[in-house]
Queue: 2 jobs
Job 1
Amino acid sequence: MFELHRVSYAYHGRIPALVDVDLTIAAGEALVVLGPNGSGKSTLLKILDGLYRPSSGQIFAFGRDITSAADDPELGYWLHQRVGLVFQEPDVQLFSPTVFDDVAFGPLQLGWSPDRVRDAVQRVLAELALEHLADRAPFELSGGEKKRVALATVLVMEPEVILLDEPTANLDPRSRAQLIELLATLHARGHTLVIATHELDLAAALGTRLIVFGEREHRPIAEGAPAQVLADHELLLTANLIHEHLHWHGSLQHSHPHWHDPEHQHDHD
């Protein structure tokens, strides 16, 4: 579905975000891209969505070279019928007077008829239990509601691939659990998911394959099944996904690896 060949990207031509990334994403995967802040996760999603053009390298999607999608409106239009990105901050995607208008915006840009747009918006609002918010302004929504509306703005266009940047960031426990359950349902229906996060429990709950981005390397340094990757504490420490505290009890010293997750976890050595 996606193939990246030695893809690099540098902000302002000098600040590396991605360095020589080789990556294949298969149809039907729930690929979780793990990494700390600044490792290149968000940049990767924006390149997959055709928002950024790589500084070097090639990208193929659905068998077509999309390297120049950011500069080619026709190619970008073709790509955005198949791929949708949910940004980390929902306010980036919610700018219309009402929720209904926000969800309708993408299909209207794709040239759908008014009747098709109305039917699609009503369907996706019902699926996400958002009908009662259709006439509400985005600034009146809670954090969890904004996240679901942002997801609705992507789902309404019926993409094959959904890219999600830190989808559970800043959510309360109930909203977080509801969103994870919703994403699991979307994957079960056949959507390919690519999720960028540093939350290990999210990776365990949703991932069929994990890729770990290096903080300094700005490319994958490990990949594998969730159980394999999440059991490798040395890898997680190196990648700055957990941190280790030393504790003294009299003359006895031991360490606690701490997961960087909303549900704080301890493993005792």
Job 2
Amino acid sequence: MEEVLQFLFSQKQSKRYILVHCTHGHNRTGYMIVHYLMRTLSISVTQAIKLFADVRPPGIYKPDYIDALYNFYHERKPEMVVCPPTPEWKRPSDLDLNGDVVPDDDDDGGSAAPLLENHGTETLMSNDDVLGDSIPFNQQDTLRQFCYQALKLGAGVRGNSQFPGSHPVSLNRDNLQLLRQRYYYATWKADGTRYMMLITMDGCFLIDRNFNFRRVQMRFPCKSTNDALAEKTHHYTLLDGEMVIDTLPDSQKQERRYLIYDMMAINQVSIVERPFYERWKMLEKEVIDPRNYERQHVYQSRNPYYRYDLEPFRVRRKDFWLLSTVTKLLKEFIPKLSHEADGLIFQGWDDPYVPRTHEGLLKWKYANMNSVDFLFEVAHSTS
């Protein structure tokens, strides 16, 4: 699948036609074309399969390919979807020299591509787990360029390869005065894994500290203009947050949760220059609320068969409080968290989003969790 995407992406600016074929142009061909339709149009798997079948009847006729598509895009296969019968010209009439049926050569001897995401595992989760699927390098370069543009950064000496996310600095005697001079919010410092996330029609991409992108299957509908459900999904919305592993107190079951604490672009429009309190409110209204509303009314949505429960993690907006509540935050809120925390973050309420090191974004860690970064070099004496 990745090789096909790599090819398609390299031909994106070309005006030439692309021909897709396998032995007979139905199962493997349909499987790839449906993937393409799902990543370029805001439609369901059922609609994409029908689009292909209408122009290339009978369409995909092997059940494992159809099932794999529904599983990959987290959709429940409707009862009305029936796999078409094997075409007359494909029914086994040829026998080999031993009198056995000649094998079907419309596939490569195996089933459709397996899922790379494992949703039913009971293995212990850790912050070192690799999430999502790798993407073509040229697609990653294009997405990196968008991130730099959204954050209003130049390419720099290292090009677009350096992670551009905002980093806090440690609270010390010199910057402690900022908390007295400016208006700050406080939140807990989660002990998780830092990711930015880019939402597109092609899927969602987790962006790690090495500025590498991996695709995860998630759904983020846009805010509707009325009380109806949204008809569009976010396209090039850039978020910042942290992945944590919650341990549910009753069952001790683990759940991944992405805590979103900032938004830098919405549907291709950069908002990094807006004050933090505006971006934080927009995050709730434009991203979290529409998603939660559709989850609660999914059977009335444009895609009533989508299964949010199969997504690799949950999402929520991270809470911030007035600076005067820090004592309560430390003594009452943090001890009740279902994931680890190692301190506090202090965010200026009217700060723009500052890429890389942000001298006004402050972090405080518990004394027993403080660490020292250092670099040492081993030299061998020649004497």
